[in-house]
Design brief:
The protein has 332 residues and is an alpha+beta fold. The chain folds into 2 domains: 93 residues, 434 Repressor (Amino-terminal Domain); 178 residues, Beta-Lactamase, CATH 3.30.450. The chain is 42% helix and 9% strand. The protein is built from 15 helices and 5 strands. It has a 5-stranded antiparallel sheet with strand order 2-1-5-4-3. It is elongated, with a radius of gyration of 28 Å. The termini are far apart.
Length: 332
């Protein structure tokens, strides 16, 4: 029997045959200008004229016109029309784009896309609004046996579980539920945070980073002024030790729980809810040392002595090391 002949495979790549002119059309469809035009028209056409303040209502209307949008945004129809057509040769101000976003009722994500497509730049942070916390979020916090809480852009606790009160009573009582005020202004923080000076250094670096993002935030300014006026150590850090620390997700701390003399090592899990990027969720997960009995089933395997577990995470380069601060007291 003659051996079967196996056809050889060609090493050349098979290229799909494009319809003539298709490549040019695809490139045009993927341009910033085209995408801006499509989205702007879509956003305007989804508006209900009966729900837009300042328009003359008439039965049977289905869309808000370009002329009306221009009037609402306080610009000429030609200028608004240029933006809607995707004309990227013009320089659109942030103030104008914010008026457009407000009148089109854009979400935070849509506003960001508008700025990126129209200018190539990220928009500035929006003024904070009163957050809406759903029952599902509260239920998730209550399921955790260790402290779990939700804070706003000034580290004010908006929702928490019972373990937060049990572990950190001073945070709720002395500091009124503000994490930064507790760290710098509450005596209980120095007693419970085994490495208070180190942790305060990181907290101040977070305050400085948040101020850089939202320098006009009134409540944030008030909080910083209060902390600097109350804590001499905080004032010295702010003045002499500039450092930025964006978040403490994955950071480790040693705590002394009320009534305990042995340190507990916790790992901080921090995340930002996509529905409201101004908020941040925290969980203090026990990983070493004196883990409370009601947490042992849910906690990861105990790493042993909290002091050794903490030192293992503090090798040079892992985290910013605080400099020793000498506070100079004014002569009497």
């Amino acid at each position: 029997m003659a051996p079967a002949v196996i056809p050889s495979r060609s090493t050349s790549r098979v290229r799909p045959q494009l319809v003539k002119g298709a490549s040019t059309r695809v490139r045009a469809a993927l341009s910033r200008s085209t995408e801006l035009n499509r989205l702007m028209v879509s956003w305007r056409e989804r508006l209900n004229p009966d729900e837009v303040a300042g328009l003359v209502h008439s039965s049977g209307r289905r869309n808000v016109s370009q002329f009306e949008m221009a009037a609402l945004c306080e610009v000429s129809e030609a200028w608004y029309g240029a933006l809607e057509r995707g004309d990227l040769d013009r320089r659109y101000s942030a103030d104008f784009l914010d008026r457009v976003a407000a009148n089109l009722k854009l979400s935070t994500g849509e506003r960001r896309v508008l700025f990126l497509l129209a200018t190539g730049r990220e928009p500035s942070a929006r003024p904070p609004s009163a957050p809406k916390i759903s029952s599902a979020v509260v239920a998730r916090l209550n399921r955790e046996p260790w402290p779990a809480y939700l804070v706003d852009t000034t580290w004010q606790i908006l929702a928490r579980n019972d373990a937060t009160q049990r572990w950190l009573p001073g945070l709720i009582g002395e500091a009124g539920g503000n994490l930064m005020r507790w760290v710098f202004c509450s005596p209980s923080a120095k007693k419970q945070m085994v490495d208070w000076e180190y942790d305060a250094h990181l907290a101040m670096a977070q305050l400085r980073a948040r101020f850089a993002v939202a320098p006009e935030h009134d409540r944030l300014q008030q909080l910083i002024h209060e902390i600097l006026a109350t804590s001499e150590f905080a004032a010295s850090l702010w003045k002499d030790d500039p450092c930025i620390w964006l978040h403490d997700d994955g950071n480790r701390q040693r705590l002394l729980l009320p009534g305990s003399t042995k340190a507990l090592g916790v790992e901080i899990l921090s995340s930002t809810p996509l529905r409201n990027p101004d908020l941040r969720a925290y969980s203090l997960v026990p990983v070493a040392g004196a883990i409370p009995a009601d947490c042992t089933d849910a906690a990861p395997a105990n790493e042993g002595d909290a002091d050794l577990a903490w030192r293992a995470t503090c090798h040079p380069g892992a985290r910013p090391r605080p400099r020793k601060i000498t506070i100079r007291r004014a002569a009497a």
